[in-house]
Design a protein that fits this description.
Blueprint (H helix, E strand, L loop, with lengths): L1 H30 L14 H14 L5 H27 L19 H27 L3 H64 L3 H9 L9 H14 L2
Helix pairs in contact: 1-2, 1-5, 2-3, 2-4, 3-4
Length: about 240
């Protein structure tokens, strides 16, 4: 039993790494830069590992490629939807949002994901997993156990660190939001002060006689700058000059 668990954990790790590599490659191709796309700090995307194992457990007997593709897409998208919902409820953040994408469901899953996950999962069941199983099962039991134990400890530590960060993520985002609002208010107040000073200088650059002409001739304009007179008039009205 322990051997089987160790083997399946190795499968999970392998598919999680492949998912990370896929996401990272997409970032390089689409965004023209390298980005570590994993939620954890290590090079794995756990949702890909869980999705692969779920499809292998539920659909290992399905051999019709079309049926396997459709069923795999449904299973994978269901997992992605539930994962998105659970993460949002637990940590109050959304790591992906497909709003605006074609045939999306509440922004949590969409058509391209269904197609990619369906094709990938079907390929795993029909092609990849039989070969991977042959390789892992050819290893000595002690080697499988050591490899699984080392990877499990590393993943558990990474998971614990990530969990701690996620639990404080929402509160820190709230503090950052408040700080941004405070900075904006401070900047607005500073801008208002500078505008008041500038308006004072602007208005006082005219003589009393010139300011009086601006007030008593509401259609007075300057061909040089059609807006300057109306601006001065607004300043004079606000200041009661």
């Amino acid at each position: 039993m322990l051997l089987i668990c160790a083997q399946w954990f190795l499968y999970w790790t392998a598919y999680s790494f492949v998912g990370w590599a896929w996401e990272t490659m997409l970032s390089v191709v689409l965004r023209k830069r390298f980005e570590d796309r994993g939620m954890l700090n290590g090079p794995i995307c756990p949702i890909y590992g869980f999705g692969a194992l779920l499809v292998l457990a539920l659909l290992h007997d399905v051999r019709n490629p079309v049926a396997l593709f459709l069923a795999s897409g449904v299973v994978a998208c269901t997992l992605e939807y539930v994962s998105s919902w659970a993460i949002e409820k637990l940590y109050h953040v959304r790591f992906w949002d497909y709003t605006g994408k074609p045939f999306n469901i509440n922004g949590r899953v969409y058509l391209n994901g269904f197609l990619a996950f369906g094709l990938g999962a079907a390929t795993i069941v029909l092609v990849v997993q039989p070969r991977m199983a042959d390789i892992v099962e050819s290893w000595p039991d002690i080697m499988v156990g050591i490899a699984a134990a080392v990877l499990f400890v590393a993943t558990a530590v990474d998971w614990a660190i990530t969990q701690a960060g996620l639990h404080s993520f929402d509160s820190r985002l709230a503090r950052v939001s408040e700080q941004i609002k405070m900075r904006k208010l401070e900047q607005i107040e500073a801008i208002d002060t500078r505008i008041d000073i500038a308006n004072e200088v602007l208005a006082r650059s005219l003589s009393w006689q010139q300011r009086r002409l601006v007030r008593i001739f509401p259609r007075l304009t300057s061909p040089r700058d059609p807006d300057v007179v109306s601006r001065i008039r607004r300043i004079l009205e606000r200041r009661g000059w």
